Predict the 3D structure of the following.
Amino acid sequence: MYLSLPPFWSSWLAWPKPPPAPDASDVFSSFLDVSRRQARRLAQPAELRIDVDPPDATIEQELSALHQRLHSPGDALHGLPSTPLPGHPGLFVRSRVADGELYVYIEDPLRQCLAGTTVFNRLVELNRRADRHLRAPHSRYAPAYQRRGLATAVYRWALDGGQCLVSGARQSAGAHALWQRLGRDYPQGYVCLQHKTPRYLGRQVDARVQEALATRRLLLGRGWTLARLAAATGMLSV
């Protein structure tokens, strides 16, 4: 299945809409109390596990192979519609959806190359209910296009469209910095992904908890609250 993306300002993709607010009698009040208590105890977000950045040559090889596929007749990536990337003259966006995952490609036609790509992956750690609302973005951008706000623009589009994001088990230094920036503009916290059901850990976690591979960073998309996400996904509290 392919998807043609309209401009950023008209929302690239119709992400799932936030569900109605839960009833006031919902037991989620204790869930929020835990969050507030943890926020008072800890002042700064803990760093998640930082992975080693892949070599620049490896990233460029991957992007080169993808760019060739985009322009190879008969390939599944060939012929994807192209849309100008607002705020970045000369760059264009192509995208497709496959098996519930969104693939976004940023192309530089003048240089005949891909600037980078972001994939919004499903998480095998989640059950079907939570899988409807949470995606884990992973990005690869060529060195010449890094630090230009491209990945930030793609992540913000997803969040502004109502998509909630969860980080991967490990992050590159650049990805960690990106999540830190986004955490200042969107509601954020930490979740534990075990037993197929997410469990909210609070806005802050201590060093012991943040070392666990199941601990991930959470960013709420526009229109979501913790109560709504818990009602939609079955997310538990600590």
